[in-house]
Design a protein that fits this description.
globular, 25% helix, ten-stranded mixed sheet, alpha+beta
Length: 1532
């Protein structure tokens, strides 16, 4: 064995040593790039073997002879010493292939299509623990966290096609819900309140783990509870309470309360938050229970519900309503969504079946992680357990249970010890109630008086045997005759009857006694074709004989009412381990995040095991590898194939039997012996042995569930049995030693199988469910692969198949002809990849299918009846690119897509269920209290299941084919991603408040300097920058002139942006080149630049060279000639695709004309005259477009068409506006034409009020957007930008970036570039939510967010006179609006123009603060808008609290709605702390406080403001009178 000397090197310090591994090519003549080598120390052959890949072999970077060099960080991690001797040999990648790998990433947004691209990129590469991965094409940074191979954790390995990659995000959106049920005030066995256990215990530990792992989650913490009222009818409640009351299935009135403690916050240290929670806890119960109390008013008695009765599912749905909208308010610094419910209960909840269906479907479809953490003690049965509300009131109706597999359960126990005992009680005794003596005696008498014969069966009845029969797993297939018999019989507890019949004990079983013996009903997923009949037959050796006894039993016990609903089998929460259900895609949606344990079944790592002195033989492992989450496949009463029951013999694969076809296979009798033979063998027990003996290499163990197409009912993986030995003991709590199923300590790179110590004997097979800290700290994203595909018969019977073909080349040819602007089309292969990407992005998963028998060595992926395809359908997820044929299978819920690429044809085949679930809609009312609110306000929300089959994939695929052509616009239903921004001018007043601690915040209108001119100039520069336009003549920056000059306005030189010259070379291409000549060199520069056609000049303030003023009688033609002058003319843009030559913008031309016209002629009229004379024209070549002042393109028509740089216009207006942002300027025409200055009288006091804001026919326009400006991505990326059509100084300008075919990091790159440019141009670009006010009953509203209502005092006039009495009544409502607007302006708010959505509703005006941190909304109450609106009638409850009113159409109070901008990054939000303030008061909160004080007229501030305005009006009247110059007075 050849030894090499080991050196180490540091990456980056030497160009030639940039790889992880550097070696000498002469030592390794056979080595080639891509080979994997293993390196280990010869003394320690069983120790850590490091695997590295040879990434480069060249003569320049090489070591000495017999020396290898590895990167020093890796050497340290693997404890390899420099200059020691090591063995290095090339290994076969298949032998060291990984089964699964976990990758973590932080502070970035990685969409699912990026995850798929990253997986492709990583395939066939070698990784080791903590390796940092930089995928530059996508600008993704991530790190290897954990790897699994052959059932063990390993320290390095090779990623192959079959490796499952799990992505975990340490910056997620996390919702922590604390259930404040009555148990929170109970004590646990250690004498702590459960609240203390939850907060001081669990949350404290969780936050410590976050800190240790460097997590940076965006967290919302909500306390929630349900209050029951002791009332029989609604009349018992006072009117103010009735808005929000709900009635449950037992006729009890209740109300749900939510207290949002923390909203969308990120913290480095969460300890302060815990203190805040403790503070809330002390008053929570009293506040909620006594919330409605008023004086002299009777309120029904209120009680807090128990955890079981609480609003558990409602809470999950509330978080889903937010999570579902992830594409609307996209942020680029987090990925992943997690909702965690912390309950003092034990994991049992009483729930509504319909709501369970909704919750289950939504959680699974949305791929959201949902964790349940119980701080109560773990019960003796399987949990989580959902008990359905039993709406059937008859005595014989049984309760129905479900074990949801879509909730990840953890039990938290503290590390406290009790000196005298290690016993943990797992049963809670009921509390002794103080009852009257007489009652006790009465009940005892009743208890003892029962007739002896009535309960004699206690001695005869063998309950254990009974249980065994009742819960026996059922065979799915049988002969046809048997199935017919079974169909005929409708009761489903036959064993109960037959048992009684055989024991001649049935006469005791009168219906009244049945409830005492009745058994619980099963999981609604198990709709067995065989209705639970055969459970009774286990004693009968002969099938026909037992059937006969069945019939007799039925004849004999005619009197017994059917005990449970027909068509059901039973599950037993105390022993669910043998119940199996048919596999479905839902069941396998998350399974690829679990690693395979030593026995080849998927395990979960927070299950610990108490180990005996001898390590447990592997055969027993299967029992011990427990997983905590439970399973429920489809809580739907539809009898469809998803819920059929099938068992296949272990060695063979049968087609599954569909209940619809009532087919059965004679072969299948063979499978029945497992269930029904004398030995009562549960065939699932057999697989443990076969799995262990099948093959020595665990990697070759096929995936059980896929092979058998079956799954255990309980547990998230569906591959582990439940045992009653599961306990909540904590190793350190009881002093016992727990052996984790797998060690999770990262610093320990032991030998390949990570050894764990075996302590003293503790007793066999104890499993402890701990806390799934990993899921709670770095939640996994929904895996991009799954392994379930229905078999052929099922596809044929239960699915509707539709398909269509795409010919991207033909489509592109058609569009290339008609398109005005050429864009490089996508190749057929790119289209195919993009089509798959889009489906992944919408929550689909790739189905991994093994190719037909090909002897793959190493790790084979799962195969089985569910996945095996016919040979012409075989497919791997990523076949080699040499083939022209590719096929991808994808699924979400019960929808499957097959996308196949053959040559240049793409075929998309869709399979959707023949019997889709009916859509369900639940209307939910609740009270919620958000931060800075003063009350629990009424809110309402809808929970609905989405019809995934209705998604218009055909439209989406054509959109991709045509590269985003206008014929296939993005529609809302396509759920495209969007990032909404407001462009706001930078404001200095904020500084005055933050840095100098100004006491008042209404100081924003104090500045008298009118800087409209700078704003517009800066805006033009910014839009040029965004549009990537260059000028032929560099317009000089305003502040760069060497000589003093007369300016029209005062310029704030400090604020004017300095254009930075030393830009990083990467960005240079995308910046506008403007030229700033030095003073001396101006002439030389002009000369040298003349050749380049760029002639900078000293110039006047408008940025254009000025030679002369025009004479008064100059002709149009002469002006036109002067405009065209290459040096002193208007100045054109440099040649750009789709712009004609000699293009300029109208704003430039207007300023150019204003500087030269002397006789008061209007510049706009002159340009319009030129257009009519066909001298100039809109740059699209459309003659009908008039001249619009603004950033609108026009070109000189009369130019030399034979010049080499001549470019004609597109002659297609719609194509032109799809390419370029064109924006009209309003409210600033005085810049190019002298106008009388506006009156100083505030609008609300003028005799005729000015209109509120700009309105045009179109508020928004959309243009195409090239997203990958720095050409980094290996993907064709594009999107759209939606923007306001009008820019008006003093208004917010809106931009929305929209995309589907782009990668998150690339979009993020583009937008952060824009944000930097905006700062250069004295603006700020602020991200804003799609729904800033989050009012309830709007479709996309966030259920836990709501505006704060701030009433405006309107009675501050002396004698309580009404405002605006002196004006006509019809104008008063408008004047009130203008008064509110003036108040907002004082506080620095700018109006936002929005599209009118509903003409019937009262008009709403929205405002944003100049910092972008908050929004305000005024709802107008003018008479013409007081139409009763049906749409608002139903939505009569509003969080806005316009008084507790049932009608929002006519607000009862005048006031403002105030909302926070939660899209502002947390650091930026917290940066606005006011200097020298107590407790570091935030600027935002000070604004709110000061605004509230102003509106309530504290210190007479509002009255003083009113008086000042009246004074201004009086002065202006006097001024006009003195000048006798109505309205023509100049502004002084």
């Amino acid at each position: 064995m050849k030894l090499y000397k080991l050196n180490t090197h540091t990456r980056g310090c030497n160009k030639s040593y940039d790889a992880d591994l550097v070696l000498n090519p002469q030592d390794h003549p056979t080595a080639k790039v891509g080979d994997v080598v293993e390196i280990y120390s010869p003394e320690d052959e069983n120790g850590t073997h490091l695997l590295l890949q040879i990434t480069e072999l060249n003569e320049q970077s090489k070591t000495g002879r017999n020396v290898i060099s590895i990167e020093s960080g890796i050497a340290t991690a693997f404890k390899m010493r420099s200059y020691s001797n090591v063995v290095m040999q090339i290994v076969n990648p298949a032998d060291v292939a990984l089964d699964s790998i976990e990758i973590t990433f932080k502070d970035q947004y990685m969409g699912r299509s990026e995850m798929w691209r990253l997986k492709t990129y990583l395939t066939n590469t070698c990784v080791y623990v903590n390796k940092k991965i930089d995928y530059n094409d996508m600008q993704i940074r991530c790190q290897v966290y954990e790897m699994w191979s052959q059932g063990e954790r390993v320290a390095s390995g090779v990623i192959t096609d079959d490796t499952k990659i799990v992505f975990r995000s340490s910056t997620s959106m996390v919702y922590l819900f604390l259930q404040m049920s009555s148990e929170m005030w109970d004590f646990d066995i250690h004498g702590d309140l459960y609240f203390e256990k939850a907060v001081n215990g669990f949350l404290t530990e969780l936050f410590q783990k976050w800190k240790k792992l460097g997590c940076n989650h965006e967290v919302t913490i909500v306390l929630f509870s349900r209050t029951f009222y002791a009332a029989k009818s609604l009349d018992e409640f006072p009117a103010h309470m009735r808005d929000c009351l709900q009635l449950d299935y037992k006729g009890r009135y209740y109300e749900d309360f939510y207290r949002v403690a923390i909203q969308n916050e990120r913290n480095d240290d969460w300890c302060t938050v815990l203190a805040q929670l403790r503070k809330l806890f002390t008053s929570y119960q009293e506040t909620v229970l006594r919330y409605h109390e008023r004086q002299q008013m009777h309120i029904p008695h209120a009680t807090n519900s128990t955890a079981t009765q609480g609003n558990f599912l409602e809470v999950l749905n509330i978080s889903l309503n937010t999570f579902e909208k992830h594409y609307l308010d996209r942020t680029f610094d987090r990925t992943g969504q997690l909702s965690v419910v912390i309950t003092p209960g034990v994991g049992v909840f009483s729930v509504d079946r319909e709501l369970t269906n909704i919750t289950k479907q939504r959680i699974i479809d949305n791929g959201v992680g949902s964790d349940l953490v119980c701080v109560g003690e773990q019960p003796l049965h399987a949990v989580p357990l959902l008990k359905f509300h039993n709406k059937d009131t008859t005595l014989t109706s049984a309760d129905d249970y479900s074990l949801p597999h879509w909730i990840n359960l953890s039990f938290y126990s503290t590390n406290k010890k009790i000196a005298y005992s290690s016993f943990i009680p797992r049963i809670k005794l009921p509390i002794l109630s103080a009852v009257d003596e007489t009652d006790v005696e009465e009940s005892e008498r009743n208890f003892l008086s029962c007739n002896q014969s009535e309960y004699i069966h206690n001695s005869l009845f063998d309950y254990d045997a009974y249980d065994e029969q009742i819960f026996q797993p059922l065979p799915a297939q049988s002969t046809c005759s048997l199935q017919r018999v079974v169909r005929a019989k409708k009761t489903s507890v036959p064993s109960f009857e037959t048992y009684a019949y055989r024991n001649n004990d049935w006469e005791n079983l009168t219906p009244t006694k049945i409830p005492s013996l009745r058994r619980k009903m099963s999981d609604p997923d198990i709709h067995h074709g065989t209705s639970g009949m055969l459970a009774a037959l286990t004693d009968a050796t002969n099938l026909s004989e037992s059937l006969a006894s069945e019939k007799n039993a039925r004849r004999t016990i005619v009197s017994i009412a059917p005990i449970v609903r027909p068509g059901r089998a039973l599950i037993n929460p105390f022993d669910p381990s043998h119940v199996t259900i048919k596999l479905t895609s839902n069941r396998r949606r998350w399974t690829h995040i679990f690693p395979k344990g030593p026995t080849g079944v998927l395990i979960q790592q927070h299950h610990y095991q108490a180990v005996p002195a001898k390590s447990t033989p592997a055969a027993n492992y299967s029992r011990q590898l427990q997983h905590s989450t439970s399973s429920n496949n489809n809580c739907n009463a539809n009898n469809n194939n998803e819920n059929d029951y099938n068992i296949a013999a272990a060695g063979e694969q049968y087609d599954q039997v569909s209940t619809h076809s009532l087919m059965s296979l004679s072969k299948s009798i063979a499978s029945q012996q497992f269930v029904m033979g004398e030995e009562k063998v549960d065939f699932f027990k057999r697989r443990h042995n076969s799995l262990l003996t099948a093959t020595a290499a665990a990697a070759n163990v096929p995936n059980l569930t896929a092979t058998q197409a079956k799954s255990y009912l309980w547990g998230a993986t569906g591959e582990q049995e439940w045992t009653p030995a599961i306990t909540t003991e904590n190793g350190n709590a009881t002093g016992k030693h727990m052996k984790p199923i797998v060690e999770v300590d990262h610093s320990n790179f032991g030998s390949s199988p990570l050894e764990a110590t075996t302590p003293e004997a503790v007793g066999k097979g104890k499993i402890i469910i701990g806390v799934d800290w990993k899921s709670l700290s770095i939640p996994a994203c929904l895996p991009i692969t799954t392994d379930y595909f229905p078999d052929k018969r099922s596809l044929h019977n239960d699915y509707v198949i539709s398909d269509y073909t795409l010919l991207p080349d033909d489509v592109n040819l058609d569009y290339a002809r008609s398109r005005a602007v050429y864009r490089k089309p996508l190749s057929t292969e790119e289209v195919c990849k993009e089509i798959v990407s889009q489906r992944l992005a919408q929550g689909f998963q790739l189905i991994v299918v093994e190719e037909k028998p090909s002897a793959t060595n190493g790790c084979c992926s799962s195969s089985g009846p569910g996945c095996a395809l016919t040979s012409n359908q075989c497919s791997t997820v990523l076949p080699p690119s040499a083939e022209t044929r590719k096929e991808y299978l994808l699924s979400i819920g019960r929808i499957f897509h097959k996308i196949s690429l053959t040559g240049s044809v793409i075929t998309v085949t869709g399979y959707r269920p023949r019997h889709p679930y009916p859509p369900i809609n639940v209307d939910y009312r609740y009270r919620f209290h958000a931060p800075q609110h003063e009350t629990y306000e009424i809110s309402g929300v809808n929970f609905t299941t989405e019809k995934l089959e209705n998604f218009n994939w055909n439209h989406m695929d054509l959109y991709i084919c045509t590269r985003g052509d206008v014929d296939y616009p993005l529609m809302d239903s396509l759920k495209y991603w969007r990032f909404r921004m407001y462009l706001l001018p930078r404001e200095n007043m904020v500084n005055k408040i933050v840095s100098f601690g100004s006491q008042r915040c209404d100081i924003f209108t104090d500045a008298v300097v009118d800087n409209t001119r700078e704003q517009i100039d800066d805006f033009v520069r910014l839009i040029e920058n965004v549009s990537k336009l260059k000028r032929q003549i560099g317009r000089k920056a305003r502040h760069d002139t060497p000589t003093p000059r007369i300016t029209e306005k005062n310029h704030n030189l400090l604020n004017a942006p300095q254009q930075s010259i030393n830009v990083r070379s990467k960005l240079e291409a995308s910046r506008i080149s403007r030229i700033f000549p030095g003073t001396d060199a101006a002439a030389a520069a002009a000369a040298s630049n003349a050749a380049a056609g760029v002639i900078p000049r000293d110039d006047q303030d408008d940025g254009f060279p000025v030679d002369i003023k025009f004479s008064a009688n100059i002709t149009l033609a002469e002006i036109f000639e002067a405009m065209k002058h290459p040096i002193t003319g208007v100045g054109y843009f440099a040649q750009t695709q789709s712009l004609p030559s000699c293009t300029f913008v109208s704003y430039d031309a207007l300023l150019w004309l204003k500087a030269r016209l002397s006789n008061g002629r209007h510049p706009l009229d002159i340009l319009e005259a030129m257009r009519k004379e066909h001298m100039i024209c809109h740059a699209s070549g459309d003659w009908s477009k008039p001249i619009i002042a603004g950033f609108v393109f026009y070109y000189v028509v009369q130019q030399d068409k034979n010049a080499k740089d001549y470019a004609p216009p597109l002659n297609d207006y719609s194509a032109f506006v799809n390419e370029w942002l064109e924006i009209e300027f309003q409210g600033c025409s005085f810049l190019w034409h002298d106008e009388p200055s506006p009156s100083e009288v505030p609008n609300f006091l003028r005799d005729t009020t000015a209109p509120q804001s700009w309105k045009t026919k179109r508020v928004y326009r959309q243009s195409h957007l090239e997203i990958d400006v720095n050409q980094k991505s290996d993907r064709m990326e594009w999107g759209h930008v939606k923007h306001h059509t009008v820019m008006q100084p003093g208004f917010a300008f809106e931009l929305v970036v929209e995309w589907v075919t782009s990668s998150g990091p690339i979009v993020s790159d583009l937008i952060s570039g824009w944000m930097r440019k905006a700062i250069h141009c004295s603006y700020q670009l602020v991200s804003v939510p799609a729904d800033p006010m989050a009012e309830p009953f709007t479709k996309k509203s966030d259920p836990l967010r709501g505006p704060i209502f701030i009433p405006l005092c309107v009675t501050f006039l002396p004698d309580g006179a009404a405002l605006f009495n002196e004006f006509p009544e019809e104008s008063r409502a408008d004047r009130m609006l203008f008064l509110q607007e003036a108040i907002l302006a004082r506080f620095g708010f700018l109006p936002c123009v929005l599209e009118e959505t509903n003409k019937d509703l009262p008009k709403e005006y929205q405002y944003v603060h100049c910092t972008g941190n908050m929004f305000a909304l005024i709802r107008c109450a003018s008479n013409k808008n007081q139409v009763e609106s049906p749409s608002r009638q139903e939505a009569n409850v509003t969080r806005c609290v316009y008084g507790h009113t049932n009608n929002t159409n006519v607000p009862k109070k005048v006031g403002f709605l105030w909302a926070w901008n939660h899209m502002i990054p947390n650091k930026k939000w917290k940066a606005l702390t006011i200097n020298n303030s107590e407790n570091g008061e935030l600027f935002q909160l000070k604004m709110l406080k000061d605004f509230r004080e102003f509106c309530s007229n504290s210190d007479q501030r509002l009255a003083n403001f009113w008086a000042n305005c009246q004074e201004l009006k009086r002065k202006s009247k006097k001024f006009e009178y003195n000048n006798n110059n109505n309205d023509d007075s100049k502004n002084i």
